[in-house]
């Protein structure tokens, strides 16, 4: 049976991961308001679940971690994604999207972007619009700089706004301890604080050194530590001084290195292995400086379809 003649599902389930930035270098703001970035993303095992079912119009509901802080109207990135796909393909179909959040909201881990990527894939299946991954990638880039990465997952180098991706050859599995804050940090505020600090030279060019790609190839976490840098760390800590205490809580543990994830306020600490990560998490939990402490690993795949349901009518 060809794709065109396959019966369409009534409901689909797509899962997409959150990310951390192993390296995030920021260039001077451009005339269009964007900062050129050179980043290395890694998708980690904290997932957003999007259940999509056929409906008359487009609507969204949300449950899970920090769900009360997520809009369910047209401002929701999943709503934007469904609308963009409908407009781009000329379909008049509708969808109800239920998002189960696991990625901390406004935590610098791209949760909203994961929802948008999952929605593009879910609606494409549900509506039978038949776009390929490349076409979905173009729509993803229109929705936000982190959305294309949520489609592809794994470990990737991102330049431009972070949306021009090259897969990185990363061996092995990296174990991370995440210190999560209940209070999110809006990304635009963090960039504004960076600009105001005047620390980016106007002619600065940003890049990812080949030595970092080599370190990823070895699969040795200890080889990666010197490459873990984030230009948004200082402004994030400036805006949330409490993060100094969270970072201090990792000192004296076996953490190999700590970084602010994306625009923060999530802090990610690299561990030598899973056992070390569990022990570090326990120590940081005991310090009571973080609202929640989680153990995750990366890399993991990007948005993927896990279930399709067709009810016989
Ligand atoms: P960024 O991708 O800008 O770095 P982030 O990862 O820090 O953001 P998100 O959780 O993706 O943070 O969302 C940031 C804001 O976007 C939230 O405060 C929320 O108001 C809004 N938002 C819109 N849609 C969603 C969504 N599906 N999930 C979470 N937040 C959303």
Can you tell me about this structure?
- Strands 1, 2, 3, 4, 5, 6, 8 and 12 form an eight-stranded mixed sheet that branches. A four-stranded antiparallel sheet has the order 9-10-7-11, with helices on one face.
- The chain is 32% helix and 29% strand.
- Helix 1 (77-89) packs parallel to helix 2 (111-127) and helix 5 packs across helix 8.
- By secondary structure, the protein is an alpha+beta fold.
- The model has no long low-confidence stretch (mean pLDDT 94).
- The longest helix has 17 residues, at 111-127.
- It is built from ten helices and twelve strands.
- The protein has two domains: 11-167, Ribosomal Protein S5, domain 2 (2-Layer Sandwich); 174-298, Alpha-Beta Plaits.
- It is globular.
- The site of adenosine-5'-triphosphate (ATP) has 22 residues, from helix 1 and helix 2.
Helix content: 25-40%
First-last Cα distance:
20 Å
Mean pLDDT: 94
The number of distinct β-strands equals 12
Strand content: 25-35%
CATH architecture of the largest domain: 2-Layer Sandwich
What's the helix count? Answer: 10
- Low-pLDDT ranges: none
Classification by helices and strands: alpha+beta
Order of helices and strands: EEEHEHHHEEEHHHEHHEEHEE
Radius of gyration: 20 Å
**CATH topology-level name of the largest domain:** Ribosomal Protein S5, domain 2
Any idea of the CATH class of the largest domain?
A: Alpha Beta
Distinct small molecules bound, one entry per kind: adenosine-5'-triphosphate
Number of domains: 2
Largest sheet: 8 strands, mixed
* Coarse shape: globular
């Amino acid at each position: 049976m060809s794709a065109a003649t396959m019966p369409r599902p009534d409901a689909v389930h797509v899962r997409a991961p959150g990310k951390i930035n192993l390296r995030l270098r920021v260039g001077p703001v451009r005339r269009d308001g964007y900062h050129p970035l050179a980043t290395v993303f890694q998708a980690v095992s904290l997932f957003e679940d999007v259940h999509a079912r056929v409906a008359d119009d487009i609507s969204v509901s949300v449950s899970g971690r920090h769900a009360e802080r997520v809009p369910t109207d047209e401002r929701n990135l999943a709503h934007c994604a469904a609308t963009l796909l409908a407009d781009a393909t000329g379909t008049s179909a509708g969808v109800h999207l239920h998002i189960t959040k696991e990625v901390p909201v406004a935590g610098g881990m791209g949760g909203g972007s994961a929802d948008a990527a999952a929605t593009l894939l879910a609606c494409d299946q549900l509506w039978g619009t038949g776009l390929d991954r490349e076409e979905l990638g173009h729509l993803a880039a229109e929705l936000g700089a982190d959305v294309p990465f949520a489609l592809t997952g794994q470990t990737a180098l991102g330049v431009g706004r972070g949306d021009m991706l090259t897969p990185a050859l990363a061996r092995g599995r990296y174990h991370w301890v995440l210190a999560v804050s209940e209070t999110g940090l809006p990304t635009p505020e963090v960039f504004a604080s960076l600009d105001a600090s005047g620390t980016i030279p106007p002619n600065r060019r940003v890049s990812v050194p080949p030595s970092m790609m080599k370190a990823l190839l070895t699969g040795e976490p200890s080889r990666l530590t010197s490459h873990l840098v984030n230009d948004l760390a200082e402004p994030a800590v400036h805006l949330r001084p409490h993060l100094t205490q969270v970072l201090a809580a990792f000192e004296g543990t076996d953490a190999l290195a700590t970084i602010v994830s994306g625009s923060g306020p999530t802090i990610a600490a690299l561990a030598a292995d899973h056992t070390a990560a569990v022990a570090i998490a326990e120590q940081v939990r005991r310090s009571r400086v973080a609202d929640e402490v989680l153990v995750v690993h990366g890399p993991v795949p990007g948005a993927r379809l896990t279930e399709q349901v067709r009810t016989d009518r």
